[in-house]
Amino acid sequence: MKLLITGGAGFIGSNFIYYMQTKYPEYEIVCLDSLTYAGNLTTLSDAIKKENFTFVKGDITDKTLVNELFEKNSFEIVINFAAESHVDRSIEDSGIFLMTNIIGTQVLLDAARKYNIRRFHQVSTDEVYGDLPLERKDLFFTEDTPIKTSSPYAASKASADLLAMAYYRTYKLPITISRCSNNYGPFQFPEKLIPLVISRALADEKIPVYGKGENIRDWLYVEDHCEAIDLIIHHDVVGEVYNIGGHNELANIDVVKGILKSLSKPENLISFVADRLGHDMRYAIDSTKISSRLGWLPTTSFDEGIQRTIEWYLNNRTWWNDIVSGEYKTYFEKMYSER
Ligand SMILES: NC(=O)c1ccc[n+]([C@@H]2O[C@H](COP(=O)([O-])OP(=O)(O)OC[C@H]3O[C@@H](n4cnc5c(N)ncnc54)[C@H](O)[C@@H]3O)[C@@H](O)[C@H]2O)c1
Fold first, then answer.
1. Is position 153 annotated as part of the catalytic site?
2. Can you give the pLDDT of all 339 residues of the chain as single tens digits?
3. Helical H segments across 172-326, by residue range
4. Which of 68, 157, 251, 253 has the most CB atoms at less than 10 Å from its CB?
């Protein structure tokens, strides 16, 4: 089996590569990643040691490069993780989000069509559904929930989903889509909530929390997400959309306090800052479809997953220290200093 994994130097893509290399050591994997600020080649230093793994530095919007790559390799499955993925950055400037997340997906879909791949899997997000009210704990996103995006990031991801579905309907391209809730685990860039809290708490630095920290997210350990994608790409389910979630709903403030407690750090490190524009209140996923049809269930509880994640950040300080001391420092100051 020959796989193209885009965005594999980022958080979920790299975890997926390690998951696949462990489970299917015979698979040939090519990773295409342009190494934006969120991509990190050191993340893949162990993956690269394997003979049947190839890393290609390149942009998914580069039609010539993408076509050459498909021409040279007879990919059977393409899994598209490559994306601009941070909501805050999309609020600052949406241009690159539209380029990568929409045009990049279109370039990949066209190549997949031209070279007759067996499956194109689009990694999407629950954010395409917008949000749910805090007071309606009975409501969940299903695959039939209408698309109703809040941020430019979510709008770009939803556009990519619609394109993938259009290629299925129009050209019978064998696509699948997964829409997952918030992931956490090793190798997550420290601009996202959980690694941000861990890295700043360890440095005894103030931890910015939007609004009152009431916003609820449904947290899923990254390995559970990888397992769900593995099931989808290995089942004959073309044209289907699957929601993936952990039934692990937590308010941001509780996540922050829980991490501080685990690290024995004081709560006065928390600094409430002006809320994100258009901030979604609650995400909650109904993942009945993937559970009942493909037998997927998350196996890592939040307590276990967060401990593993904290330990990983404690044991891999060089990985994130290099990030937080570099260009990201300027970004952090810009984003939070005047809130
Ligand atoms: N992180 C989450 O909680 C979450 C939840 C649901 C869905 N998703 C989706 O999963 C996917 C992966 O998310 P992540 O958190 O790992 O993101 P990430 O930002 O950590 O990684 C994105 C990767 O894509 C690469 N990339 C960006 N633009 C590219 C381009 N034009 N060409 C080639 N490579 C490019 C980056 O270099 C990086 O390695 C995204 O599509 C995201 O929308 C993420």
1. yes
2. 999 999 999 999 999 999 999 999 999 999 999 999 999 999 999 999 999 999 999 999 999 999 999 999 999 999 999 999 999 999 999 999 999 999 999 999 999 999 999 999 999 999 999 999 999 999 999 999 999 999 999 999 999 999 999 999 999 999 999 999 999 999 999 999 999 999 999 999 999 999 999 999 999 999 999 999 999 999 999 999 999 998 899 999 999 999 999 999 999 999 999 989 999 999 999 999 999 999 999 999 999 999 999 999 999 999 999 888 777 677 777 777 766
3. 193-202, 222-233, 252-262, 288-294, 302-315, 317-324
4. 157
Let me know if residue 318 belongs to a domain.
no
Query: Ligand 1, closest atom to CA 82?
Result: 24
Distance (Å) from CA 263 to ligand 1 centroid: 28
Using most ligand atoms within 8 A of CB, pick from 64, 81, 105, 255 the residue to mutate for ligand 1.
Answer: 81
Q: Which helix (H) or strand (E) holds 160?
A: helix 152-171
* Phi, psi at 334, each rounded to 5°: -65, -40
- The label of the residue with tokens 């400037």 reads 93
Is 126 an active-site residue?
Answer: yes
Domain total of the chain: 1
Atom in ligand 1 nearest the alpha carbon of residue 127: 6
Query: Which residues are 263's β-sheet partners?
Result: none
pTM of the model: 0.97
61 lines ligand 1 (CB under 6 A): yes
Q: Is residue 329 part of a domain?
A: no
CATH label of the domain that carries residue 117: 3.40.50.720
Choose the catalytic residue: 33, 59, 127, 161. Answer: 127
Residue 253 in any domain: the answer is: no
Domain carrying residue 170: 2-186+220-247+282-301
Q: Which atom of ligand 1 is nearest to the CA of 14?
A: 16
